[in-house]
Structure formats: structure tokens, C-alpha cells
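Q: Could you predict the 3D structure of 6-phospho-beta-glucosidase?
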Amino acid sequence: MSFPKNFLWGGAIAANQAEGAYLEDGKGLTTVDMIPHGEKRMYVKLGDMYPVEMMEGENYPSHEAIDFYHHYKEDIALFAQMGFKCFRTSISWARIYPDGEGQVNEAGIAFYKSMFEECRRYGIEPLVTLCHFDVPMALVNKYGSFRSREMIECFTRYARTCFEAFDGLVKYWLTFNEINILLHSPFSGAGISFKPGENREQVKYQAAHHELVASALATKIAHEVNPQNMVGCMLAGGQFYPYSCNPEDVWLAMNKDRENLMFIDVQTRGYYPSYSQRIFKEKGIVLDIQEGDLDILKQYPVDFVSFSYYQSRCASSDPTLMPTDGNVVKSVKNPYLKTSDWGWQIDPLGLRITLNALYDRYQKPLFIVENGLGAKDVIEEDGTIQDDYRIDYLREHIKAMSDAIDDGVDLMGYTTWGCIDLVAASTGEMSKRYGFIYVDKDDEGHGTLKRMKKKSFDWYKKVIESNGEDLD
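A: Sure. Here are the predicted C-alpha cells for 6-phospho-beta-glucosidase:
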């Protein structure tokens, strides 16, 4: 095994899927607070239903989530027991600015400062996402979220507040989580809902442009506040394979990868790639790029590239082939791969392929900030949770990471997704569990919130202690 001595092993959560306390201590409403669990969930996530107010009789999982807000010291102590070097979380924008702009909520600053200090007490490096599918609803209602250029100033003001308030506590930052997901799930990705008859592609790519400018300016501010700050972009990763050697399948897979990577191309290289012009032309998109925007993108690229990896994808020109289940990024089923309980294809070699493809493309340090298996865990009669399937999944992906490092990839770290059980972003379920730590709560919101270690807890502790050498 070839992991560097300073490799950042750890785990990841997001504020909106873990914290709860959705209106406590001055926090404002966010987009995720308005997304219910159940049949209406996808309509809201896809931007087809604008959530003016909460619907009676619906369950909103983010409102309590796993109550990390009140359990963070207990949970971080458990992460420390596993030996975490790094803990990825996000800041809820509306906990710092309840209306997304205006007055700072000092209680929100105090909460995150305490959390990051707790991490530091155990020698854990925080990795913090500024906007993880969590836009203040006040900004959605006032500006239409990132469809409006006013959001650039709102975001950069918020970013500066965070960089200054947590200077010395947080070194590693991400601007927007899975920025490409706004193309597939616009409301959950970027707070975008659609008006009847408008060109949805125009709206999505214009919103992305505003996020890209905001991200570049945030990178500039981060380096001004502290030159030691490192800022990354974040991609929902996974290569598209051609379903066959039919050139049409190969061409489609190439174009799917380009669509997936365009925003990361801009954030790392500092300019829109040449292929983007054809995409814009074919989709009828005319971006409103104002004077100075392209200079900003060019001058302030990110320091590293982070990404999530759960599965590879497959592209075919044959419309009769069956799609996979579960994920908003559409893919046909790969007949060579097994799937999870939720239909997500399991492909450890795909992680090695993705790592090599991204490093070949960008030649910047990479960071895997999400990877894990959503599964139905069972508490045995003796109280144990024997999640060998999760251990097997992670073991094979860690081997793929090691192989990629041997291939020459510069990999900074690895934070498994949902190191403690949380609300699944895709479905809103608690039963889709990812963690090393079980949280007693069900899909209807019932449970004691008691934390329990799974078998994978001690296994991952051993992995970290051995710096990836002991995977048995």
C-alpha cells in the first residue's frame, strides 16, 4: 500500500442531513428544510414544484435529522476514537445569515466555532463546505436563488464572514457541493424552481455561471484572509463508460463526461472549455457574462479538486436499454456490475479509473470527500450490527485508491460519506444507512437518536491506524 504519511483519513456529513435544529438559535429556513420525504420529494427537488410553504401532513427529515446540533461533542469524540485525521462537514448558510444577507447571527458563529474547536482538540482537521445543497429560502424567495446575479454578492459576503470567523480553525474549504448536480436536481442543487414555458437549460447554466463567479471570488477572499487556506471545487464524480464499442456509444459517453466536468473545468483551468460553445448552441443558451467575469474565473482557480464517488455510469445510444435506479444522474445498467440495495452500481475499479481521468485532466491534488455504501442495517439480538457488506465495499475502494496513487495520482485524503448515519439526500430516508455509527431513528422520524457502533467502526479504526495497510 502506498498512502502518504500525511494522508487525511476521515468521514463526511452535511449540515442539512445531520444537524437538525432547523429553526433553533436564530437559524433561517433553507431549501432542504422545504423538501419533504415521500412522493412529492422529487417534484420539489427537480424544480417542478415551488415550495411556498410547508405542506400539511408531510414529514420533513432535515428538521431534526440526527440532531448533530446537540450531539456534536459526543459524535466528534466517536470520530476521534476511530482516529479521524479529517472531518468534512458543511456550514448552514442560514445559520450564519438567517436571511442569506443582512445581519450575522452570532449564535451560528458560536456553534460552528465550538464544533471546529472540538475537532482541533482531537487533532482532527476540518474540511468545510460553504454551500452543501443548502441555500437560504429568503434568497430563493427574494432573488430566485442563483438564477439572479445578486447571489454572487450574497455568497461572497457569507464566505468572507466564514473565512474570517474561523481563521486558524479551518484550513480546507469547498465552495459548492457537487456543483454539477444543479443540472440534474435544480432545487436541491441550487435552489432553482422553474416558471412555465422558460428554457430550463438557460436557467440552469446561467445559475451555474453565477456560482462559478462566486466560487472564484470566494477563492480570492480565502487567500486574502489567510494565504494558507486551500480552496477546492467539488464534483459528483464517476466516469461514463460506453455501453459498447459502437462509436455512437463512445461519443455519447464522451459528451456525458464533458457535461459532468464542464463546471470543474472552469474552476480548475479558469475558463470555459471549447466544447461548451457547442453545448450552449444546441441547448439554446446565451449566457449573460458581464464585464470582468472571465477575468475573475481566470485569476482565481481552485487549489485542489474534490469529488464524490459512489458508482460509475454507462451511456448507450440504444433507447430500449433499462436505466439504473436511485441516482439523479441517469445511466443505463452495466451488466458487469452488482448493485446496492438502492440500485446503485458497485464499481471499485471505476474509482481508480475516475481518479486517473481527473488527475490526467487537471494535474491538481485530488480529494475523495464522499464514498460509501447506503444499506439496510440490522441490529442483531446481541445488539451488534454486522455490516460486513460495508467493510467489503470500502475495502475494495481503498485498494483502488492505493492503486491510483501507485499510478501517479496525487491524492490528499479520503472522507467516507455518512460516517454516522444521517438523512439520505436522494430519498430522505434514514433506512439508507452509510455510517460506522448507527443512529436510532426511522424513516418516519421516530427513535431515541441513540448512537451505536457498527462492526465497521473498529475496522475503519484499524485502517486509519495502519495508514491503509491493514484492510482485513
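Q: Anything worth pointing out?
A: The chain has one domain: 8-465.
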